[in-house]
From TrEMBL:
The keyword Membrane applies. Keywords: Cell membrane, Membrane, Transmembrane, Transmembrane helix. It comes from Fertoeibacter niger. It is a multi-pass membrane protein. The lineage of its organism: Bacteria, Pseudomonadati, Pseudomonadota, Alphaproteobacteria, Rhodobacterales. The keyword ATP-binding does not apply. InterPro entries: ABC_transp_permease (IPR001851), LivM-like (IPR043428). It holds the Pfam family BPD_transp_2. It is found in: Cell membrane. This is Branched-chain amino acid ABC transporter permease. One of its GO terms (cellular component) is plasma membrane.
Amino acid sequence: MTYPAGRIHAVLFVILCGLVLLLPFVVYKILLMKIMCFAIFAMAFNLLLGFGGLMSFGHAAFFGLGSYMAAHGAKELGFSAIESVVFAMVLSGLLGLIFGWIALKRQGIYFAMISLALAQLVFYAIWRADFAGGENGIQAVPRGMFLGMVDLSNDWNIYVLFTLIFLGCTLLVYRIVHSPFGQIVKGIRDNEARAISIGYDTARFKLILFVLSATLSGLGGGLKAIVLQFATLTDVHWVTSGEVVLMVLVGGIGTLAGPIVGAAIMVVVHDYLAWLGPWVMVVQGSIFILTVLLFRQGIIGTIGRKLGISL
């Protein structure tokens, strides 16, 4: 017996809602919110790679810019937490528009390398910027109030807000993927020449997708700066660009649940094995190798294929 994909996705979303409601009673809330931030980042990257077929090696530029702009907005410009995050999203989206216009003039490995080069420019610019604090980054970012009434310094208050944003972002990504726009993007990914012959302006669709991905990446970075109360050069470093690739590949490229699972695994490994120092990257690499060997389509992708359902 087969079930409609929409019903399966609805059940998965209900399970996700249950998890985010129950887990804070047994797991450290800050860790859960960090997972949500990186899950949003991974979902944003999966939009580009999994559904658009575009490999970017420089997506940390948008995540990191979002982190720094939210931190700067909250600490120096007097913005509220939400205003700071919106500020971060807008600037990340604008940067995505510029980068996309440049990088999308090439395809394949050339597109990937251009994205990496542009991201390194952002890294250097932030490193040298006076407001960014150099190697120390921006510390002690205030969480402030929500709507002037809810104190976000309380972990429960900010957790509820983050949960609503995370679930809303998940629904948004689902809607994008299953919209006419999403179907066209997947068609371009599978056969761009055919899409062009039908009459679609493929360059415009890919640019819109790139901007959407950059904006959501900025959202993840901005939320991370608010909840952890700091922004550092790690956020915009090329290693972070590599980590989000691992998150998507481990979870399952081109799936909806995969980036969330991949982000959870990588964040937990990174946090609980932080005492290993640089060796934690070896552990992450080993997880990736095992995933490739045991789950060719990522954990969620392989499970979905074996069950014959779309996850």
